Amino acid sequence: xxxxGRASVLIGAGTIVSRLSGLLRQxxxxxxxxxxxxxxxxxxxxxxxxxxAIYAIISTGVLTAVIxxxxxxxxxxxxxxxxxxxxxxxxxxxxxxxxxxxxxIAAPWIVALYTPASAAPDQIALATxxxxxxxxxxxxxxxxxxxxxxxxxxxxxxxxxxxxxxNNVVSLVGFGVFLLIFGGPNTxxxxxxPAMIALLGGVATGGIVLQTIVLLVFWRRAGxxxxxxxxxxxxxxxxxxxxxxxxxxxxxxxxxxxxxQSRVLFEASGNGPAVLASQNAWLVFMLPYSLIVLxxxxxxxxxxxxxxxxxxxxxxxxxxxxxxxVLGLFIVAATAALVAASVPASRIFTNxxxxxxAAAPVLLCFLVCLLPLAVLFVIQRTFxxxxxxxxxxFFTLVQGVLVAVTALGAGWALDAGLLPVAELAAxxxxxxxxxxxxxxxxxxxxxxxxxxxxxxREWLLPLFRFILVGIPAGAAxxxxxxxCGGPEGWLSADRLTGALGSALVGGVVLVVYxxxxxxxxxxxxxxxxxxxxxFLPER
Length: 539
What we know:
Blueprint lengths: L1 H32 L5 H36 L7 H24 L1 H8 L6 H14 L2 H17 L4 H5 L1 H19 L11 H24 L19 H29 L9 H35 L3 H28 L1 H6 L5 H15 L2 H16 L4 H26 L8 H27 L5 H28 L11 H25 L5 H9 L6
Keywords: Cell membrane, Cell shape, Membrane, Peptidoglycan synthesis, Transmembrane, Transmembrane helix
Protein name: Murein biosynthesis integral membrane protein MurJ
InterPro entries: Lipid_II_flippase_MurJ/MviN, MurJ
């Protein structure tokens, strides 16, 4: 348990710095392209999301589902898995090069696929120009993910978490240079020149390139000597392909659902929160998810994979119960804090308090699925630990269909005059959250039956208890917002007060939340605080 705690702290500390520097990066980007009601911002947001979406699929789908369990198994080979990893890395690099080249060739069609027919031609042209600069990120994101997952499987967790800071620093400097030369915000499409497009797109991609190079430096720490190896016989391609086939089908589902969402969101571009505003809300949403779920859950997944490979189902069940209870305690606190501070937090990525009030509902609707996604992280990766990628495909299929249906429903309501354009992005976000809730219910039921019980009662009751405690804690945080002048008070006056206000509200929520848990002597509090104290510097 102590090794998991140390790994969690290492990952968590890196995630804190990475996410905070990422938030600063996004703040500067908003100063360049705007946020709410920005045609140029939505064009760049779409183009830059294309490689990001593929990266998310690679890092949480194909690699996590297939590579980590296979590397854990290969570690028992006489060479410690070195030959297997070299073959796998060479194969992955070739695939990534081909995928990136095809994406570059198909850039105009990809952009057209993600935008509705009603989108302005000049906005689509700008998005396509940005896409040519951003799509090379696919190769470097994929390479970074492949390197990082190998390091994680070898229990070298730090570099994968800390490397993105390099990307954020490069982007901050580059975006700062852009502001000095061209100023901002440049929200209209006709404001953008080829030089502006090249600088913004080049900086966005250059940061990813350096991020990957930094990760290569740490490769020897895993005790590996990487060399190109095109002799793929014996690497188990048939077995890996059978496992990866289902995850690639999940890729298709996710992409189709994302296409539907993007096309619907573009209907609000220039008139309310749309593509970029939704991405900013998702960035805030991902801050606690990355810090809590990934930092604590990643080491658990490596340990869980070892127990599953050894056939220790009882230990796997213990890992599931313990990880969900610890994750739930932290996640509910974060959810309550962000709900109360939704407007100040949104103000960080908008240009005035009015835009913050308009963007806050999008964040609130995403937060509905923060706790369910934390549970899904554990449940889904348990399937992966048992080399089962087929079952996750089916419950992901249900989620993808629901995401597309709810997004189309929001678009229909907009066309019918039943939904204001300012609430379209929030409706799409709520549909995604509800779809994820259904997904985690189905996944949990299947896994519980598969393993003959996963202690649902032992972790579900504590989660309900945390939620009950989170309600008065969130109310206390909202009281702070009201005392400070309400949603459009001084907490939302500018970006700095938005950040400070979010910290103030979050601090109050956390104190009340922990105080109530301590008052009722909640058993999960002591181990959670022990884990939290690991983040504090020693005397």
